[in-house]
Structures are given as structure tokens and as C-alpha cells.
Design brief:
The N terminus is likely disordered. The longest helix is centred in the N-terminal third of the chain and has 16 residues. This protein has nine helices and seven strands. With 273 residues, it is of the alpha/beta class. Helix 2 crosses helix 8, helix 3 runs antiparallel to helix 8 and helix 4 packs across helix 6. The structure holds zinc ion (ZN). Zinc ion binds next to loops.
């Protein structure tokens, strides 16, 4: 491939997620594939994951977790091949209904217009062809996921020219059910109750685009491994047999959100990796 044709086919890809590690499981393989094909990927993280779990007290304290997670994300993205990693600087809002939702510096409390202005600036600077973000359910309803979905969608739906292809990263409900069953079959106690399965994950019919990322699963796994504070070696996910985990990590699911007015967009992700 000549330099010229490479440049003309290079796409700008912008990921906007709420927390360091939100990129990992649902889109890490696709991002690795896009990087390997020469596309330019920028990862934007709206919060620093300040109130996440700490798997091992030797890794971080509640006070410095935000810095540790920023470093974890940078290292993870180095593995994936993404050097442009940015933070919008908000405090993690915590799980729904927790006192962290009320912190004035958290994303949940931020003026929508301020967040949208930050996202608009990114659009103007990077002129993305593709944007990845959280789906309308937020995966499992995390307030920060829902805010990032909402603000990003508002900005893109208001764009009259150069509207990027907007892809929501999905975690289909049927997969949560299968994962739950896989865990039961393996004698592992799932992290969610059977009754909760109705309330987590994306409706199965959201999915427009399924990507086989098995070629990138090793990169994805190594990248994910840098989110050490979030990986509990004694937790249910660590107990899953490696081959079953590889199978789970080898497919990623997306929902191409079409413009509200005007022509519909082609699903360009289908042929990209
Ligand atoms: Zn998250």
C-alpha cells in the first residue's frame, strides 16, 4: 500500500466511555483491529473511575485510585496501540443511588451543556468517521454510562454535516443469560442473581453488527490485564475456564445508531476489520 492511499483510507475513530476499563471487554478487540489496519483511534474517558473497586489494597488507596486508574488505562491502551488517551476530568458518580451521585464534581452532576461542549470540541478537532460509546441501557444502568450515552448522542444527533457513524457498544441480554448459565455449570457463583438478568444488558434486537475479534483476543486480554485494580483474582470472572473466557472475548456487539432525519448511514464497521 502506498503512503498516499494509506492516508486517504485512514479513518478517525473516537471512543467516549465513562470509566477506565469500559473499553476493554465490549470493544477492545475491535479497537485493536482498527489500529492494526492503520486507523487513528482516540480514547476519551469521561471520569477517572475514582470510586471503583480496589482488587488489592497494595495497588491503590481510595485517595489515589483515580491516578492509578488513569495509568492503568494508558498502559492498557499502549498494548492496544492507542497513544491518544484523554480524560474529561469528572469524578466517578458511583453506582445508582450511592452518595457519590451527589458529589458536585461528579459527571452525573455536571451541567449537560458543559459536557456537550467538551464533546463538540472533540468532534471539531478529530472529525471522527466513527464514534463508539455506551448503549442506551448503559450496559447495566450505571449513571455515568447513561450520561455519556446521552451527551454523546445529543451532540452527534445535532450535527448537520460530517456526522460520524455512531456505534453503541452492546452487551446483549442473551449473553448475560448464557454467561450466568456457564458460571452455574462450572460451579461458580455468578455476580448477579437470576432475577436481575431481566434488568441488565442490551435488548438483543439492538445489535446491528457482530464482530468476530478472535484474531485480536490475545491483545484484548493483555490490554485488559492492565486494569489491575478492577480485576479480582478471586472473583467470578477470574474463575471462568480460559477457553470459555476466550470464547466470550472473541465476539463484540454493536448498534449503529441512524440519523434521526436524512439518509441512513451504511454499516462501515462490517468490512473494516
Ligand atoms: Zn463503566
Amino acid at each position: 500500500m502506498t503512503q498516499g492511499s494509506h492516508e486517504s483510507s485512514q479513518l478517525s475513530v473516537l471512543c467516549i466511555f465513562a470509566h477506565p476499563d469500559d473499553e476493554a471487554f465490549g470493544s477492545g478487540g475491535t479497537l485493536a483491529g482498527l489500529v492494526q489496519r492503520g486507523h487513528k483511534v482516540t480514547l476519551v474517558c469521561a471520569t477517572n473511575g475514582d470510586v471503583g473497586e480496589i482488587s488489592d489494597p497494595a495497588l491503590a488507596t481510595p485517595e489515589n485510585l483515580w491516578q492509578v486508574r488513569q495509568d492503568e488505562l494508558r498502559r492498557a491502551m499502549e498494548v492496544t496501540g492507542i497513544s491518544d488517551v484523554r480524560f474529561l476530568g469528572y469524578r466517578d458518580s458511583g453506582m445508582d443511588g450511592t452518595p457519590d451521585n451527589e458529589d458536585p464534581s461528579c459527571l452525573f452532576q455536571a451541567e449537560p451543556s458543559k459536557v456537550e461542549a467538551q464533546i463538540s470540541d472533540l468532534m471539531a478537532e478529530l472529525k471522527p468517521d466513527i464514534v463508539f460509546t455506551h448503549d442506551p441501557t448503559g450496559g447495566y444502568g450505571h449513571p455515568d454510562h447513561l450520561v455519556v450515552f446521552d451527551r454523546t448522542t445529543s451532540v452527534i444527533d445535532a450535527m448537520t454535516e460530517d456526522r460520524p457513524h455512531l456505534y453503541y457498544v452492546c452487551f446483549p441480554k442473551k449473553n448475560f443469560r448464557r454467561l450466568w448459565q456457564d458460571m452455574i455449570d462450572a460451579g461458580i457463583t455468578p455476580p448477579f442473581a437470576k432475577e436481575d438478568l431481566d434488568n441488565i444488558g442490551s435488548p438483543d434486537d439492538y445489535v446491528t453488527t457482530v464482530k468476530d475479534v478472535s484474531a485480536y483476543v490475545e491483545i484484548k486480554r493483555e490490554s485488559l490485564s492492565h486494569h489491575k485494580t478492577q480485576l479480582d483474582p478471586n472473583g467470578p470472572f477470574s474463575a471462568i475456564a480460559p477457553d470459555i473466557m476466550t470464547a466470550w472475548m472473541s465476539t463484540e456487539y454493536f448498534y449503529l445508531s441512524q440519523p434521526k432525519g436524512g439518509d441512513s448511514q451504511e454499516d462501515i464497521l462490517v468490512d473494516l476489520i
